[in-house]
Amino acid sequence: MKPEVQSMKNYFIGLDLGGTNIRAAAVTQEGEILHRVKIPTEVPLGRERVIANILKIIDTIRQETKGLKLSAIGMGIPGIIFFDKGIIAQSPNFPDWIDFNLKERLEKELNIPFFIDNDANLAAIGEGWIGGGKGFDNFCMLTLGTGIGGGIILNKKIWRGEYGMAGELGHITVYPDGYPCNCGNRGCLEQYASATGIVRMAKEELGVRSSELGEKNITADMVYQLAKNGDRYSLEIFQKMGRILGIGIADIVNILNIEVFILGGGVAEAWDYFIEYTREEIRRRTYRVTGERVKVIKAELGDDAGIFGAAYMAMKNRDSYHFRC
Ligand SMILES: [Zn+2]
Q1: Cα(151) to centroid of ligand 1, in Å?
Q2: Would you say domain 3-123+304-321 falls under CATH 3.90.550.10?
C-alpha cells in the first residue's frame, strides 16, 4: 500500500442550500473549516441549474483540498425532507421540487455518500457538536430568523419524528385566534417571535400610536436599533415577543422536560431586550421544579451552525452507508 494514501486525511463537506445562496465548507473530523465557498443558487434558472451549481461548489472545494480525502457530503435544505431516503418532499424555496430524490441523483454523479436533512435540524446538530449545545444530552434549538426553525436533540440524537416533521417549533399555537400563518394555522409562534413577526407587530403599533417607527419600510433591525436608543414602543415589541417566546418554550418544557434552549438567528441579537420576559414566562407556566432549572442560552455558531451540522451528519452516517441497500 502506498504510504501517502495511508496517511491521507479525511474531510467532509457541509452545504447549506438557501433560496439565494449555496454556502459550503470543507470541515475536518475535529470541526475545523479548511475552505469555504458561497455562490448564487439561481433558483429561477431551474432545477438542473441549481444541481449544476451544487456540483460546481463541491468541485471547487475538492480543487482547494487536493491531497485530502473527501469522505461524505451533507446538505441542509429548508422544508420537509425525508432524511432516510434523501428526498425533498416539499421546500418553500424550491416550489417545483416535489418528492425529488436529490440524494440518489447526486450520489450517482459524485460516487460519494451524500445526505440531506432539514436545515433547522442541522443547525441543532451543529450547535450540539461544537457550539452552544456541546456537552448537553438534551436540548432544543430555535433559530429566530425570517421564520422560526426548530430542532430537538434527545439523548444526543436529533429527533426527526415519524417522517422528518418533528421540531416544527415555530408552529406551536400561542394565540388561538391569532395572526394567520402560511402553515395553515393561526397564531403560530413564528408570527410573533421571528423577524417577520417583529415587523408586523411594529406596523400594527403604528396604527394606534405614533413613534419613530413612522418610516415606510420597517425592518426588524430598525426596531432593534430604536430599542437600543430607548424607544418605548420598540422596547414594548421585544417585550411582547419575549413573552410569547416564553409561552412556546414553556409548552416544550412541560412536554419534554428539556432544560436547555438555544436561541440563534438574527432576532436573537436583540437578546437584552427580550430574554428576561422569556425567562419570566417560562417560570410562570411550568412547575417550579422544571421551570427554575431551564437555561435559555445563545447559539454560538451563527450562520455556520447548519454547515457544521451538515458535515457532522455526513460524518456520522458515512459508516452505515456501505451497509445500506
Ligand atoms: Zn404556522
Answers
A1: 16
A2: no
